[in-house]
Every structure is written in structure tokens, then in C-alpha cells.
From TrEMBL:
PROSITE patterns: TRANSKETOLASE_2. Keywords: Calcium, Magnesium, Metal-binding, Thiamine pyrophosphate, Transferase. It catalyses: D-sedoheptulose 7-phosphate + D-glyceraldehyde 3-phosphate = aldehydo-D-ribose 5-phosphate + D-xylulose 5-phosphate. It holds the Pfam family Transket_pyr. This is transketolase. Residues 329-499 form the Transketolase-like pyrimidine-binding domain.
Length: 818
């Protein structure tokens, strides 16, 4: 196609004026990037991007990520010029329920490849998209496309961007092309006030092919063409001027505000004679011709093999019921074996850990993914947790690959912003965290999770699973791999734990469930490693026991007659149990067994607490079962034998490549359609979009993943589904439960070696009678162990006990010592 300077100028001005008009109408948005980056956007879409508005989800299209998501108005103006949005959509910029939200959302706007806005994450997403392309290309050569990402100055200051860039350079991801809108102004200050890195030296040191060009269409186009030939990932710094042409150009004032009345001055300067939302016919035709020619050429070269079709349309199947796992092991070991098993069964399963596979036991199959083995499915992310999660999001965005990532649970804090976007984008990423509590021991409080469970449970749409044994771990993974639209977090133990005969594979998948059902009005609720402890106490005292390892927010029992056990913060448990046994402080460095004792997570201690709280009596204490100790694993994690250095990849036969257990993402109403291979779409219409309506049948590829129903039915756990027997329904709340006087709060004791019958716990006293005074001492560990109990007569009253003092925390939050 022959390009025309005059049409280029008119098209660029159209993008600018349309985008700025949308910002003005919304009275909100970022004008600066619209004027600085319009040339970059126009050049990419007219001269290089392989994309069609008639097949915006074609699997072999080039991907474009706007990491500088605050430039969304410019992207929407571009999509409108391609026919994917309308004038009405632009006029509704940043309005409720519109297709043009404040930052790009892939689930809201057709043509948006990734949800961006939090700076830097778009770079990690683009790296993930490139990883997916290079991996699939090694098996299916017909998958062959580029990933472009437009970044701003702020993107490059984010830690996640530096992690992702470092990873991309080391992996030589040459299909990644970064376009930098280098306008050198940010919201508060010039960039030079906060950033003095030499980008050429930095990018070359990271392993990138670097170019710097002026903001001219021809120069930008030549730089992109040169980048396509490079064997390295490419970084093109385009020297732009923020707010170019406006009265506020090159100032911080234009970064994040509408132009207002200055738009009229700009229109005069650009000789704009149309309505500000107009799309001239010649501009529409110019874009359509440029894109259609390239797309047809790429489409003619693309022949989807039967192997690729099978890969894209096959689905995971339930497979774990018959998987044999040993008893009394750590759930991290179970997790590692399941990950290996999935790698054997499904060629979609790809991922790795943040330099912790030896400890988390999580590792991908087929060798390490690297420049000489793109078929490898073990990704060496290095110590780059945030980028690891962002890259996993990009892999999941590509097609049907199912990414998993792993690190220590306490480091989930580093991943949290990317996990949030996983949920927002409805991506089925599996996060596998090990070392789930203070009981990891010697590493101390920096490596002992406390608040992480509560944090992750608070993220909308994220499924948090903390399995208690091999049965629940298998069920957790089955939930994760069969979900198409939800991220799953699986949290596992370092220490060995006792297997439970009562855990249920099928019940776990539905949510919280009864591990033990009795005629008692009281219940114990627990997750993960504490479920065994609750089960032993419940069995001894004939109490109901509920597994909440699959946290679903359902209340299965009267909270006033429940106690929760979890080796983490008690925050969030108040809704489900009036008494919460947890840890509301940081941990301590000591061997695991000592940590158990320090925080009083011991059978005898907690049994007496339960008895005292519910006013129960153990009729035959001498018949109590002995504490069953599990042999701890060695303090030092197992060190695996060094893996052999990866040799050059030898192409596998397609029989080895195509596996049975691959996720099928098909429209269930169309049994014959092939994912991304033969669907067409109806474009939004406005009277000037097309002279002729698009043909009904196009051999193009599109399936909107976000419209596909998940096969996994999210079962609402109603009381009637727990047990069918009517008399076994949850006990209703009664005001007469657990009579207790305010001054009769429990004084908690450490477990000792004396007989239980000698322990006398007297709430009114501050010491215990233990035979000899030296045999035991009644106390709580100061600051570290936190038990709360709500008074029946005053639901706003909480008692917090430290050492020999109970403090009543009143509504006024004034603490009164008793």
C-alpha cells in the first residue's frame, strides 16, 4: 500500500481531536499523552500491526498492550477509526456502563488486549504474551506474531517493569517491541527530577536492541521494521513533547487534565474544519485499507494444523480421584506431585516459581523454557515475584495456555496487584503458595505469613484454598484447572500434617462442609493444618467440625456457638464464630515445635479452652488419646540434584505434543466451532462506518473468551445441601446460649506434661493449681497470642487477654483494665 502524507496528517489529527473531545466531554482524562503519542499509535496501526476489526480475536494477530493506560482516550479514538467503537461510545468516555472506561479493560472493550492502568503491569503482560507466542511457535509454527506495548515515562520507573524487562532480555524474546512515549514530563515534575537513568545503556545492558528516534512517522516506522529483524527484544524511544500544540505543551499542567477551551485553539492550529467527534470518510478508508491488506496476507499464510485445532479445543477433565498420594505428608509435597501429574497429562499447563522450586516443590515440565528450548514448560522467573504474576496474566490472555506460579506465601504481598488484575480480567491463573503459617519455624517473622489469608480473601473473584490433607489438595487443584474465568490460590504447608479420613473430595469442591456432624449445638471451624487439631478436639468432646479450607463466605453454623481455628490473623472470622483462635501478631524465629507451643496451638491447651468457652465437661479425661506427633521434615529443605543443561531443542512429534487433557474453550451452543479459527462478529454500526455492510461469512478467527460460560458450576452452599436429614440443619441463634458473667473470662494455659485432671482453670483467679507450683504456670504469651470472645449480652464487647490481664475493648475503643 502506498501511504499518503496528507492522509497521515488528517488521520493523526482525527485521533487527537476525537480523543480530546471525549476527555473534554467527560471533564476527566489525560490530554498530554494524546498529543504526544498519536503519531506512534497511527504509525503502528497503519504500517505494521497485523489486526482486523472483523476478527479482533484471531489467534495469530499481533497483540497491542497500552501499558500507559491513562492514554485510553487515544486508544478508543483509534478503535473507533477501525470500526470497533462508535461516536456514541466516545461521547460516553468514563461514564457508567460504557465501552470506554477510564483505563482500558479487555472485558469491556473489543480490541483491548489487556486491562491496564496500574503502571508497569502492562509491560509484564506483554512479556507474558510474548512468552506464550514463542512457546506455541515451537510446537505449532503457524503461530507467528509480534507483541507491541506502548509505555510512558512512569511505566519505566515501576519495579514490576524493571523485573519484566530483565526477564525479557535474559530470555531473548525478540517478538517483543516496546514503544516509549518519551515526553519527559509526569504529573508532579519533569522526569529528570526523579529519574536520571541512561536508557540506552540500561536497555542494552538488559539485552535489548535499543533505538532512539524523533516523533516522525517515517522514523518511527523504520525503527519498528528494524526491530522486527532483531534477535533481541526491542526498545524504541520516541522523543515526543507532552501536550504538543496546546498552550500547555511541555508542562505538568497538561498531563492529567482536559484541555477545556484550549481545544478550540488547537483545532484552529491544526486546521480542523470538522465536528470534533467526526470521523472523515477518507480516514476511515485509509485505516481499513492499510489493515485489511496486511491481515489478508497474514491470513493467507496461516494454515491451522489439526494438531493446533486439537490443542485449542480439548479440555481438562477431572482426573485426581484416582491419583495416589502418600499419607501424612506436607501439602506442598502433594502440590508438587499434582503439578507434575498435570504436566504429564496436559500440554496447556505451563509455569514455574520465583527461584523456589526446591522449597515449594512446584516445577513445570519438558525442561526449562529458554532461548534454546521454547517448548520447555518450566519458566525460570528468577526472584521477580511481581513480574512473575504479571507475566502469568499475559500468558493466560493469549489463548488456552493455563499458567501457574509459585513462591512462599508471605511473598504473596509482592504479587497482590497482579492477582487483583487476574481477577478483574477473569483469568484462570493458578497461584501456588507454600510455607503457609508461622509454623515454618526458623526463618522467623519475615517469612511467617499472618495477614496474607485475610488480604487475599478480600479480593473480589479470587478463590482462596488452604487444603488440610491430600484429599483436599487434589480437590483444590481440580477446582483450579477446571475454572475458566477465575484465579485460584492454593496455600500449602511446609510441615507434614496428619491425613484425615473424614475429608471429602466432592464436598470440598462445593465450599465449606461438615467434617463431623453430631447432636451438639456447638461447632469448631478450621482450615488447613488446623483442621486436624479441630477434628481431634471435636471428636473428643463430641462437637460438630466444619472444614472451611475452601473459603466461600458461607455461614454453616450459629456463629454464637462456634469457635474458629486458623494459624493466621483473626481478622475476618468474627462473622463466622464468636471466638476466634488465631495469631494477631508477627511470628517468632524458632524450630516449628517450639513455635507451636509458643502460640499455644496445642491439643490439651485448646481442648480446655473449648471446654471452658462452651461450659463442657470431659467425663473421662483419663481415656483421652495421646497427642500424635508427626515427624517433622529436616530443617533444611531438600536439595534436588542439579538438572542437566538444556541442549538445543529437538522438535517433538505431534503425537507427543498433543495431549488429552487440554482446556476446551468453545461456545457450547456451537459444537462445531473451533476456538479462534472460524468465527465472525457483527461490528457496531454508525452510518459513516462502512459504505457496504461486512459480509456475513468471513474465514476469520474470533471467540470472545469473556462471554464463554465456565463449565464449573459455583454451587451456593445452602443449608439444605449440607445434609438431607432435616434434624441435622444448622442450629438457630438463641439468646440463651452459653451463660457467662463478664468477669468469668477464660484464663488460657500453656500445655504442660502434667495430667489433665490436675489442671484447674479458674476464670476469677490469675493463677492455676497444678500440683506443685513449679510444674506449670498459668499465663498467656504477651502480645503474641490473641483470643477474642464476644459477650452474649453485648455483641460489641470483646475481651482480649494478655498475660494475667483481660481487657474489655468497649465501643468507644477505650480499654478498661479489669
Amino acid at each position: 500500500m502506498k501511504f499518503d502524507k496528507n492522509l497521515d496528517l488528517l488521520a493523526v489529527n482525527t485521533l487527537k481531536i476525537n480523543a480530546l473531545a471525549a476527555i473534554n466531554k467527560a471533564n476527566s482524562g489525560h490530554s498530554g499523552i494524546v498529543l504526544s503519542a498519536a503519531n506512534i499509535m497511527h504509525t503502528l496501526f497503519t504500517r505494521h500491526l497485523v489486526f482486523s476489526s472483523k476478527a479482533p480475536k484471531w489467534i495469530n494477530r499481533d497483540r497491542f498492550v497500552l501499558s500507559a493506560g491513562h492514554g485510553s482516550a487515544l486508544l478508543y479514538a483509534q478503535l473507533r477509526a477501525l470500526g470497533l467503537l462508535t461516536q456514541k461510545d466516545l461521547e460516553e468516555f468514563r461514564q457508567i456502563h460504557s465501552k470506554t472506561p477510564g483505563h482500558p479493560e479487555n472485558f469491556q472493550t473489543l480490541g483491548v488486549d489487556a486491562t491496564t492502568g496500574p503502571l508497569g503491569q502492562g509491560i509484564a503482560n506483554a512479556v507474558g504474551l510474548t512468552v506464550a507466542e514463542s512457546h506455541l511457535n515451537s510446537k505449532y509454527p503457524e503461530i507467528n506474531h509480534y507483541t507491541y506495548v506502548l509505555v510512558g515515562d512512569g511505566d519505566l520507573q515501576e519495579g514490576v517493569a524493571n523485573e519484566a524487562l530483565s526477564f525479557a532480555g535474559r530470555q531473548q524474546l525478540n517478538k517483543l517491541i516496546i514503544l516509549h512515549d518519551s515526553n519527559r514530563i509526569q504529573l508532579d515534575t519533569p522526569v529528570s527530577d526523579v529519574f536520571n537513568e541512561d536508557l540506552r545503556l540500561k536497555m542494552e545492558a538488559l539485552g535489548f536492541h535499543y533505538q532512539s528516534v524523533p516523533n516522525k512517522i517515517k522514523k518511527i516506522s523504520k525503527a519498528i521494521a528494524k526491530a522486527k529483524k532483531s534477535l533481541k527484544p526491542s526498545f524504541i524511544e520516541v522523543r515526543t513533547i507532552i501536550g504538543e500544540g496546546s498552550t500547555k505543551e511541555n508542562t505538568t499542567d497538561v498531563h492529567g487534565t482536559p484541555l477545556g477551551k484550549d481545544l478550540e485553539l488547537l483545532k484552529e492550529k491544526l486546521n480542523w474544519s470538522y465536528d470534533e467527534f467526526a470521523l472523515p470518510d477518507e480516514v476511515r478508508d485509509y485505516y481499513r485499507q492499510a489493515l485489511d491488506e496486511r491481515f489478508k496476507e497474514a491470513e493467507n499464510k496461516f494454515v491451522a494444523s489439526e494438531y493446533l485445532k486439537d490443542f485449542l479445543k480439548k479440555s481438562f477433565e477431572p482426573m485426581f480421584v484416582d491419583l495416589d498420594l502418600s499419607k501424612n505428608d506436607s501439602t506442598r509435597n502433594y502440590s508438587g506431585k499434582i503439578v507434575d501429574y498435570l504436566g504429564e497429562k496436559s500440554s496447556n499447563w505451563i509455569g514455574g516459581s520465583a527461584d523456589l522450586s526446591v522449597s515449594t516443590k512446584v516445577k513445570g515440565s519438558d525442561g526449562d523454557f529458554c532461548p534454546v528450548n521454547r517448548a520447555g514448560r518450566n519458566i525460570l522467573f528468577g526472584v521477580r515475584e511481581f513480574a512473575m504474576a504479571g507475566i502469568a496474566n499475559g500468558i493466560a490472555l493469549h489463548s488456552t495456555l493455563r499458567p501457574f506460579v509459585s513462591t512462599f506465601f508471605v511473598f504473596s504481598d509482592y504479587l497482590k496487584p497482579a492477582i487483583r488484575l487476574s481477577s478483574m480480567m477473569n483469568l484462570p491463573v493458578t497461584y501456588i503458595f507454600s510455607h503457609d503459617s508461622v509454623f515454618v519455624g526458623e526463618d522467623g517473622p519475615t517469612h511467617q505469613p499472618i495477614e496474607q489469608l485475610a488480604m487475599l480473601r478480600s479480593i473480589p473473584g479470587v478463590k482462596v484454598l488452604r487444603p488440610a490433607d491430600e484429599t483436599e489438595t487434589k480437590a483444590a487443584f481440580e477446582l483450579a484447572i477446571n475454572s475458566r474465568r477465575k484465579p485460584h490460590i492454593i496455600v500449602t504447608t511446609r510441615q507434614n500434617i496428619k491425613s484425615l479420613d473424614e475429608t471429602s473430595f466432592e464436598s470440598f469442591k462445593k465450599g465449606s462442609y461438615f467434617l463431623q456432624k453430631t447432636d451438639s449445638p456447638y461447632a469448631l471451624i478450621a482450615t488447613g493444618s488446623e483442621l486436624k487439631l479441630a477434628q481431634r478436639i471435636g471428636k473428643r468432646l463430641n462437637l460438630n467440625v466444619i472444614s472451611a479450607s475452601n473459603w466461600d463466605g458461607k455461614v454453616l453454623w450459629d456463629p454464637n456457638k462456634s469457635i474458629s481455628f486458623e494459624a493466621a490473623t483473626t481478622f475476618g472470622w468474627e462473622k463466622y464464630a464468636r471466638c476466634n483462635v488465631g495469631i494477631d501478631s508477627f511470628g517468632i524465629s524458632a524450630p516449628g515445635e517450639q513455635v507451636y507451643k509458643h502460640f499455644n496451638f496445642e491439643y490439651n491447651f485448646l481442648k480446655h479452652f473449648v471446654m471452658q468457652t462452651f461450659d463442657l465437661v470431659d467425663d473421662n479425661p483419663e481415656e483421652d488419646i495421646e497427642v500424635e506427633e508427626i515427624i517433622e521434615e529436616p530443617i533444611v529443605d531438600y536439595i534436588e540434584e542439579p538438572t542437566q543443561e538444556v541442549d538445543y531443542f529437538e522438535e517433538e512429534s505431534h503425537d507427543d505434543i498433543v495431549e488429552e487433557f487440554v482446556e476446551e474453550i468453545n461456545d457450547t451452543n456451537n459444537e462445531t466451532n473451533e476456538y479462534f479459527l472460524n468465527d465472525t462478529i457483527d461490528l457496531p454500526t454508525e452510518e459513516y462506518v462502512y459504505d457496504v455492510e461486512p459480509t456475513q461469512e468471513q474465514e476469520v478467527v474470533f471467540v470472545d473468551e469473556n462471554l464463554i460460560e465456565d463449565d464449573v458450576v459455583e454451587t451456593v452452599f445452602e443449608e439444605s445441601t449440607i445434609e438431607e436429614i432435616e434434624e441435622e440443619q444448622p442450629i438457630l441463634v438463641e439468646e440463651t446460649t452459653i451463660e457467662e458473667e463478664e468477669e468469668e473470662e477464660p484464663i488460657l494455659v500453656e500445655e504442660s506434661n502434667i495430667d489433665e485432671e490436675e489442671i484447674i482453670v479458674t476464670p476469677k483467679e490469675k493463677s492455676a493449681i497444678c500440683g506443685k507450683e513449679s510444674d506449670c504456670q498459668l499465663k498467656l504469651v504477651e502480645h503474641h497470642h490473641h483470643l477474642t470472645k464476644k459477650d452474649n449480652n453485648d455483641n460489641n464487647s470483646n475481651y482480649v487477654c494478655f498475660n494475667d490481664t483481660c481487657v474489655d475493648v468497649l465501643d468507644s475503643n477505650e480499654a478498661k483494665r479489669k
